[in-house]
């Protein structure tokens, strides 16, 4: 009976595995072509300072332009990581975003560009050097660059991963811990990590509507990070209530659809205008009377 079950299982499972393998192979080949043809695009989402109430940063978010459609990163970053293509994609996103944002950055030294970095990129020993080279070629001051990494990169036992980030920080680049709260590390561990900014994951921001009983976790994350001298950005803000709460609890910066969706470079001004309108509405709502 066991043999029969095994056989059934084998017959049932194999075509599916093959289909997945084929799909992955095709996707990888397609992605490789896209990189070569310059079809990896970047959209920019504004980040608002709660102190200045204006856009102080744009986060660069990769998009794959494929047959007239834009494929979101959740559908290709993992494949890019597995195939090693993430190295070229990461370099392209940085190069392109430096080029597209340079004029905006040059207007004010307090403005920054945030770029997402995968742990796989950090495995290359020349990563830090390449980042600084691309910034220099694009005439972007390293002090205006923020690299967003997730907690998992800090679990890599290979010490050169941390050394890369420390080298970059020594050159003025800031490191943000992305999706904070979704990983394994405790709040206590935050102190040891070479980071300057924490980005509270949007799943915590959505608690403001759906899980009020867990709100103390959110507020203690903010307070802990701030007491360690870190800056706190909250992502995924969709409602004025969320924005008010996060401002009241000490977040330094806010990002989310409430202000603007990610937009291509030629519509970045639109993002800034949307943000200004959302900020004005927020301020209006909190004015007494
Ligand atoms: P992330 O870095 O945490 O970026 C935030 C994601 O949340 C973006 O999705 C953004 O469009 C989305 N978002 C922003 N505001 C809101 C909101 O108010 N509500 C909701 N529901 N979502 C919001 P996106 O662009 O699809 O990117 C997904 C993830 O893909 C990113 O998450 C990042 O981890 C990864 N990624 C994007 N670009 C790159 C890249 O160039 N390199 C690497 N390694 N990863 C990237
Ligand atoms: Mg990010
Ligand atoms: Mg994030
Ligand atoms: Mg995220």
From TrEMBL:
It comes from Arthrobacter ginsengisoli. The chain holds residues 440 to 728 of 728 of the full protein. Residues 24-276 form the EAL domain. This is Amt family ammonium transporter. Signal peptide: none annotated. It comes from the Bacteria. Coiled coil: none annotated.
């Amino acid at each position: 009976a066991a043999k029969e079950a095994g056989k059934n299982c084998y017959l049932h499972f194999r075509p599916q595995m093959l289909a997945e393998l084929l799909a992955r192979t095709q996707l990888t080949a397609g992605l490789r072509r896209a990189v070569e043809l310059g079809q990896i695009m970047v959209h920019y989402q504004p980040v608002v300072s709660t102190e200045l109430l204006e856009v102080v940063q744009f986060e660069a978010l990769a998009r794959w332009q494929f047959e007239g459609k834009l494929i979101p990163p959740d559908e290709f970053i993992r494949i890019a990581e597995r195939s090693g293509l993430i190295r070229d994609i990461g370099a392209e996103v940085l190069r392109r975003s430096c080029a597209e944002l340079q004029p905006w950055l040059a207007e004010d030294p307090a403005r920054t560009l945030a770029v997402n970095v995968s742990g796989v990129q950090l495995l290359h020993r020349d990563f830090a050097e390449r980042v600084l080279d691309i910034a220099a070629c694009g005439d972007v001051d390293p002090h205006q660059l923020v690299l967003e990494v997730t907690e998992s990169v800090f679990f890599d036992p290979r010490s050169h991963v941390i050394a890369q980030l420390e080298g970059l920080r020594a050159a003025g680049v800031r490191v943000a811990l992305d999706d904070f709260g979704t990983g394994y590390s405790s709040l206590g561990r935050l102190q040891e990590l070479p980071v300057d900014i924490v980005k509270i994951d949007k799943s915590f921001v959505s608690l403001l509507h759906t899980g009020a009983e867990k709100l103390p976790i959110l507020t203690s994350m903010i307070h802990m990070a701030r007491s360690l001298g870190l800056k706190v950005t909250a992502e995924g803000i969709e409602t004025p209530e969320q924005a008010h709460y996060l401002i009241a609890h000490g977040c330094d910066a806010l990002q989310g659809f409430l202000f603007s969706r990610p937009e291509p470079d030629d519509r970045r001004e639109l993002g800034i205008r949307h943000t200004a309108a959302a900020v004005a509405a927020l301020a209006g709502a909190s004015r007494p009377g």
